[in-house]
Amino acid sequence: MEAPLLDIKGLTVSIPFRDGERAAVSNVDLSVRRGEVVGLVGESGSGKSLSMLAVMGLLPRHVSVSGSIRFDGIELCGAPERRMRALRGRRIAMVFQDPMTALNPVKTIGAQIAEMIRLHNPRLSGAEVRERALGLLEAVAIPAPERRFDQYPHEFSGGMRQRVVIAIAIANDPDLLIADEPTTALDVTIQAQIMEIFARLREERGIAVVLITHDLGLVAGLADRMNVLYAGRIAERGPVGPVFAAPRHPYTAGLLAAVPSIDDVADRLYAIPGAPPALQNRPPGCAFAPRCGFSVPLCHASEPALARFGEGVVACHRAAELSLSTLSAKEA
Ligand SMILES: Nc1ncnc2c1ncn2[C@@H]1O[C@H](COP(=O)(O)OP(=O)(O)O)[C@@H](O)[C@H]1O
Ligand code: SF4
Ligand SMILES: [Mg+2]
């Protein structure tokens, strides 16, 4: 089988505290194949952004990173900034939640896309750059690109701005696009349109996508495989279909139960009780134990290792005996 495009092994990201370092991301394995869409899900604070900022080499200096991050065979963990700069924007790109902060308010969007194209292709003529920029606006489904080219960010709606940000991210045909909560700031119909753009980029340009989100509905519609992160560790990973049909980890089942369905009325919408532990307060044993309706004494004493189940992996002491559905998570 072909080697994965992105192959993360044992990734640990530690943050210094007064009394020593704490691992915000612990021993995470995650891989992405060429042209694949991989979901990275979990509540706020689970370590999604830190993991992917580590891939981009964009973490602040005081944060330490260990493990291995191989991108197309190239080791990125501990790589010199020169190597990262050659990859960032050219082969790996990242899109963030807020499209406004990613755009320069005093430059036309055409100029901003052109700048990105020129950065990696200094020899292209002005006409070639413009043509390519217009093609990118089309790729992200911006209507009337010729007219839009000379407009400023404030003349665009939030959803249109996010499309521009994506156009800039894919300006140099990256192999991998990391989208960190790309639609959290947008309303539901716009969210769906942005998701369609990712699907198109994969289909037409073969771009692999890591989709970071706390919204499992988005993952269901777009991703091939998903990774569930809890308190900095992989709780469960597997192909989207089987994980949705039969989650093995109580946390996954809880997240799935929180996805609104047609017969859910708003006031009954399920929420996993409690909140994820703060970095300084992670409990011994299974980090989910204080919130888990299935915990037994072993869970509080020892940390469950990731074990293979079917096509996926799960870190839960009781994964083999529990038969979870989203309903049982609600009832637990
Ligand atoms: N620069 C930082 N300094 C201290 N703590 C941080 C920093 N960045 C993230 N953290 C902590 O690390 C944990 C994981 O953060 P993050 O990766 O941003 O989570 P997510 O993206 O899943 O919401 C959180 O507990 C967060 O508070
Ligand atoms: S190990 Fe125990 S506490 Fe953790 S998810 Fe499994 S059953 Fe729940
Ligand atoms: Mg985040």
SSE inventory with pairings:
Elements: E1 6-17, E2 20-32, E3 37-41, H1 48-56, E4 64-71, E5 74-75, H2 81-87, E6 92-95, H3 99-102, H4 109-120, H5 126-139, H6 145-148, H7 158-169, E7 176-180, H8 188-205, E8 208-213, H9 216-222, E9 225-230, E10 233-239, H10 240-245, H11 250-257, H12 297-301, E11 307-309, E12 312-314, H13 326-331
Parallel strand pairs: 3-8, 3-9, 6-7, 7-8
Antiparallel strand pairs: 1-2, 1-4, 4-5, 9-10, 10-12, 11-12
Helix pairs in contact: 4-5, 4-7, 5-7
The structure holds adenosine-5'-diphosphate (ADP), iron/sulfur cluster and magnesium ion.
Can you offer a commentary on this structure?
This protein has helices at 48-56, 81-87, 99-102, 109-120, 126-139, 145-148, 158-169, 188-205, 216-222, 240-245, 250-257, 297-301, 326-331; strands at 6-17, 20-32, 37-41, 64-71, 74-75, 92-95, 176-180, 208-213, 225-230, 233-239, 307-309, 312-314. The protein is of the alpha/beta class. The protein folds into 2 domains: 6-223, Rossmann fold; 229-327, no CATH class. The strands form 2 sheets. Strands 6-7-8-3-9-10-12-11 form an 8-stranded mixed β-sheet, with helices on both faces. Helix 4 (109-120) packs across helix 5 and helix 5 (126-139) crosses helix 7. Adenosine-5'-diphosphate binds next to helix 1.
